Amino acid sequence: MKHTEKGIFGENLACDYLQKQDFEIVKRNFRYKRGEIDIICKKNDTLIFVEVKYRTSDAFGMPENSVNATKKKIFLRTANEYIFQEDWQNDIRFDIIAILHKSNQEPEIMHFEDAFY
Fold first, then answer.
1. Which of 23, 55, 86, 107 could form a disulfide with 41 if both were Cys (CB 3.0 to 4.6 A apart)?
2. CATH 3.30.450.20 is held by the domain 3-112
3. pLDDT in tens, 46-76
4. What is the pTM of this model?
């Protein structure tokens, strides 16, 4: 599987997971300048911006640990643009969904709510 195919596969797994948890998917792959938000969803009156990290190995650490300060800064700037465009006035949250999918195993999905605080 190519890198982009893995990303799409991981995002699809994350969307399935979120929908089973009663989240409503609002938008996927929202782009602004250099940034991209993988999934924007809603639950109750909260808009949730989700960064998906999909890995087939933990050799370089757990997937959630790859969200560094620079990535967070770009992610927040992109989220702020979406909030501005949509004139969103309610609560927001920033989550990470980390998926570790080792060969011949079921994917392990970990959901980190309020991951940036």
1. 23
2. no
3. 999 999 999 988 888 888 888 888 999 999 9
4. 0.93
Report the candidate in 43, 50, 117, 114 with the shortest Cα–Cα distance to residue 79: 50
Does 102 or 46 have the greater pLDDT score?
A: 46
Tokens of 74: 């770009």
Q: Which residue has the tokens 């993988």?
A: 38
**Is residue 1 pLDDT above 70, yes or no?**
no
The dihedral of CA 34, 74, 68, 60: what is its sign? Answer: negative
Going from N- to C-terminal start, the domains of the chain cover: 3-112
Q: What is the 3-state secondary structure (H, E, C) of the chain?
A: CCHHHHHHHHHHHHHHHHHHCCCEEEEEEEEECCEEEEEEEEECCEEEEEEEEEECCCCCCCHHHHCCHHHHHHHHHHHHHHHHHHCCCCEEEEEEEEEECCCCCCCEEEEECCCCC
